[in-house]
Design brief:
The protein is α+β, with helices and mostly antiparallel strands and 92 residues long. It has one domain: Thiol Ester Dehydrase, Chain A (Roll). 23% of the residues lie in helices and 40% in strands. The protein has 2 helices and 4 strands. It has a 4-stranded antiparallel sheet.
């Protein structure tokens, strides 16, 4: 499970009811017990400038809500998230 620990959002311009929006998300930071996702929201009419950016921080916990070491307990999941992080950093 990945409960939300922290949320940050910054608005640059408004979105309106009939606007079509595009949301991008990527793994921004990763540790065995925590993951940070970075988000951008674009109006489909202007993909050059986001109207909103933000990030969320999530703990990685077991059913008892205790932090776990994903790298040790679920190495295949950790490796997949690590690959997402590598791809994103190469694209930037």
């Amino acid at each position: 499970m990945t409960p939300l620990v922290e949320l940050n959002s910054k608005y640059y311009s408004p979105a309106y009811y009939d606007d079509n929006l595009i949301v991008t998300a990527r793994v921004n930071k990763l540790s065995p017990a925590r993951v940070v996702f970075y988000y951008e929201v674009f109006n489909e009419n202007n993909l050059n400038k986001p109207i909103n950016t933000g990030y969320t921080v999530h703990a990685i916990v077991n059913k008892e809500m205790r932090p776990i070491n994903t790298k040790k307990l679920f190495p295949e999941i950790y490796e997949a998230m690590e690959k997402m992080l590598e791809v994103d950093s190469k694209e930037m």
